[in-house]
């Protein structure tokens, strides 16, 4: 009798183990497929939906041409609305797969959208400026975009597809509702280290650029501070300043203006 009970218990345990194993095998594939992360594809014929960028405390959704060129999308809040730049179609330069370099096949374009609409698209926006595709034989690439009251300031790099340093880097300013006002305010060189940093002060409506210029006999660099004042629409070299870490303090028109700097 005891032997029959033991045999019955063993049979129950064996069936339980097999049932559990089969149940686990059935669950595993579905758990592997499901994911909380969005999946993007660069396959031909596939158009990834969007990317998100935060500006001035609001997250904006932009149409995304390709996940590979996500970093070439920009958003800036202004008093006139949201200015945004989607990455144009771009091609990966051969031989740069380890450290990808992309060159535009079409020019960069700036659009204006409603500040209160977090989902921007070409259909609900106004095209305000299309940049040239080329600067001589080099391609023009937008590298930064920032808002300054009624203006936007953006950086461009004119580069060749051989991966060499840009032949020219420039900062531009444009009044949002007047594309004809688009003006270069300074040239700079940022490649190879912290040779150029910049900052904006929206309260004083100013942009500052800090260049480290080579040329001293001892091999050291000369610091040059240049500011653009939106109110006067002028660019000036500043000699009365103080640098402390990533903070630039300038004495300007009887007061102080402090900029938090970022590398270009």
Number of helices: 1
Unreliable parts: 1-47
Mean pLDDT: 82
Shape: globular
**In total, how many beta strands?**
21
Tell me roughly what share of residues is in helical segments: 10-25%
Spell the H/E element sequence: HEEEEEEEEEEEEEEEEEEEEE
Strand order of the largest sheet: 9-10-11-12-13
Q: How much of the residues is beta strand, in percent?
A: over 45%
Query: What is the terminal separation in angstroms?
Result: 86 Å
* Biggest pleated-sheet summary: 5 strands, antiparallel
Tell me the structural class.
mainly beta
Task: Describe this entry's structure for a reader.
The chain has 264 residues and is mainly beta. 12% of the residues lie in helices and 47% in strands. The chain contains one helix and 21 strands. The strands form six sheets. A five-stranded antiparallel beta sheet has the order 9-10-11-12-13, with no helix packed on it. A hairpin with a 2-residue loop joins strand 19 and strand 20. The longest helix is centred in the N-terminal third of the chain and has 32 residues. The radius of gyration is 27 Å and the shape is globular. The N terminus is likely disordered.
């Amino acid at each position: 009798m005891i032997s029959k009970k033991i045999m019955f218990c063993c049979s129950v345990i064996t069936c339980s183990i097999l049932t559990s194993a089969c149940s686990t095998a059935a669950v595993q594939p579905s758990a592997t497929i499901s994911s909380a992360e969005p999946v993007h594809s660069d396959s031909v014929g596939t158009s990834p939906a969007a990317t998100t960028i935060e500006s001035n405390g609001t997250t904006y959704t932009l149409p995304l041409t390709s996940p590979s060129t996500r970093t070439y999308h920009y958003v800036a809040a202004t008093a006139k609305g949201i200015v945004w730049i989607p990455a144009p179609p771009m091609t990966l330069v051969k031989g740069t797969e380890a450290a990808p370099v992309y060159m535009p096949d079409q020019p960069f374009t700036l659009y204006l959208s409603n500040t209160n609409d977090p989902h921007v698209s070409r259909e609900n926006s106004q095209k305000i400026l299309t940049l040239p595709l080329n600067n001589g034989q080099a391609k023009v690439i937008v590298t930064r975009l920032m808002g300054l009251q009624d203006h936007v300031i953006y950086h461009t790099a004119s580069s060749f597809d051989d991966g060499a340093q840009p032949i020219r880097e420039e900062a531009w300013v444009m009044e949002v509702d007047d594309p004809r006002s688009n003006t270069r305010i300074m040239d700079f060189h940022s490649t190879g280290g912290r040779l150029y940093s910049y900052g904006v002060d929206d309260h004083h409506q100013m942009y500052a650029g800090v260049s480290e210029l080579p040329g001293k006999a001892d091999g050291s660099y000369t610091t040059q501070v240049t500011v653009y004042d939106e109110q006067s629409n002028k660019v000036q070299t500043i000699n009365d300043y103080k640098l402390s870490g990533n903070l630039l303090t300038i004495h300007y028109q009887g007061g102080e203006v402090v900029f938090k700097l970022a590398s270009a």
